[in-house]
C-alpha cells in the first residue's frame, strides 16, 4: 500500500531539468531504501535491492537532485522480451514535479533499446495517481489480477507496446 502525498505537509517545487536520471550505484542503496520506506508500507529487504542492482545495472535508475537521491525505478528484461517495471517511487516531498514521469520514460527507453517488445507492470487498483501516470505514458489495463498483493488487494496488469512508444505525449 502506498503512502498518499496528502499525508505530507510540504511539497518542494523542483524544475525537472535540474534532476539527473542515472544508473543506480551501490552507494545509493541507503538513499533508495529511504525513498522506498517513505513510499510503501510493505518494504523490500536490502538484499533484494543489492541483488537487483547486480543483475540489472542498466535498468535500475535513480533521480538525483543536489546530490541527493529523490526517486528510483527498477526495471528488468525478461527472457520472453517483456520489459517489466518492478518498482518506482519518488520521495513524497518531491512528488508532482514530473520526476516519476521522467524516471518512467528513461526506464522504458532503456528497456526498449535492450530489446523489449512491450513493457508490463502491476499496480494496485486503488493507486489512481500511478495509474494516471502510466496511462498518460500509453500503458493500457490488460487484466485485473485477483488478490495480487499480500494484503488481498487486486492489481491491474498494464502494458505498453514498444511499437506504440513515442506516439503519446
Ligand atoms: C507514482 C509516483 C511514482 C509518481 O511520481 P511523481 O513524481 O509524483 O509523478 P509526476 O510528477 O511525474 O506526475 C506524473 C503524472 O502522475 C499523475 N499525478 C501526479 N500527481 C498527481 C496527483 N496529486 N493526483 C493525481 N495524479 C497525479 C498525473 O497524471 C501526472 O501527470 P501530469 O503532471 O501531466 O498531470 C509517486 O506518486 C510515488 O512515489 N508514489 C508512491 C509509490 C507508488 O505508488 N509507486 C507506484 C507503484 S506501482
TrEMBL record:
<dbReference type="GO" id="GO:0004596">
    <property type="term" value="F:protein-N-terminal amino-acid acetyltransferase activity"/>
</dbReference>
<keyword id="KW-0808">Transferase</keyword>
<keyword id="KW-0689">Ribosomal protein</keyword>
<keyword id="KW-0012">Acyltransferase</keyword>
<dbReference type="InterPro" id="IPR000182">
    <property type="entry name" value="GNAT_dom"/>
</dbReference>
<dbReference type="InterPro" id="IPR006464">
    <property type="entry name" value="AcTrfase_RimI/Ard1"/>
</dbReference>
<feature type="domain" description="N-acetyltransferase">
    <location>
        <begin position="19"/>
        <end position="163"/>
    </location>
</feature>
<dbReference type="GO" id="GO:0005840">
    <property type="term" value="C:ribosome"/>
</dbReference>
<keyword id="KW-0687">Ribonucleoprotein</keyword>
<protein>
    <submittedName>
        <fullName>30S ribosomal protein S18</fullName>
    </submittedName>
</protein>
<dbReference type="InterPro" id="IPR016181">
    <property type="entry name" value="Acyl_CoA_acyltransferase"/>
</dbReference>
<dbReference type="InterPro" id="IPR045047">
    <property type="entry name" value="Ard1-like"/>
</dbReference>
<dbReference type="GO" id="GO:0031415">
    <property type="term" value="C:NatA complex"/>
</dbReference>
<dbReference type="Pfam" id="PF00583">
    <property type="entry name" value="Acetyltransf_1"/>
</dbReference>
Amino acid at each position: 500500500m502506498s503512502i498518499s502525498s496528502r499525508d505530507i505537509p510540504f511539497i518542494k517545487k523542483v524544475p525537472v531539468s535540474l534532476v539527473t536520471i542515472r544508473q543506480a550505484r551501490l552507494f545509493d542503496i541507503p538513499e533508495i531504501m529511504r525513498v522506498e520506506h517513505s513510499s510503501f508500507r510493505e518494504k523490500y529487504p536490502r538484499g533484494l535491492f543489492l541483488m537487483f542492482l547486480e543483475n540489472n545495472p542498466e535498468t535500475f535508475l535513480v533521480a538525483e537532485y543536489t546530490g541527493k537521491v529523490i526517486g528510483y525505478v527498477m526495471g528488468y528484461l525478461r527472457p520472453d522480451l517483456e520489459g517489466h517495471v518492478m518498482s518506482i517511487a519518488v520521495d513524497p516531498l518531491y512528488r508532482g514535479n514530473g520526476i516519476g514521469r521522467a524516471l518512467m520514460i528513461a526506464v522504458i527507453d532503456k528497456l526498449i533499446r535492450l530489446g523489449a517488445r512491450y513493457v508490463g507492470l502491476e499496480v494496485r487498483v486503488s493507486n489512481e495517481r500511478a495509474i494516471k501516470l502510466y496511462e498518460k505514458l500509453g500503458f493500457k489495463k490488460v487484466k485485473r489480477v485477483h488478490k495480487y498483493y499480500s494484503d488481498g488487494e487486486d492489481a491491474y496488469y498494464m502494458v505498453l507496446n514498444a511499437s506504440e512508444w513515442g506516439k503519446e505525449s
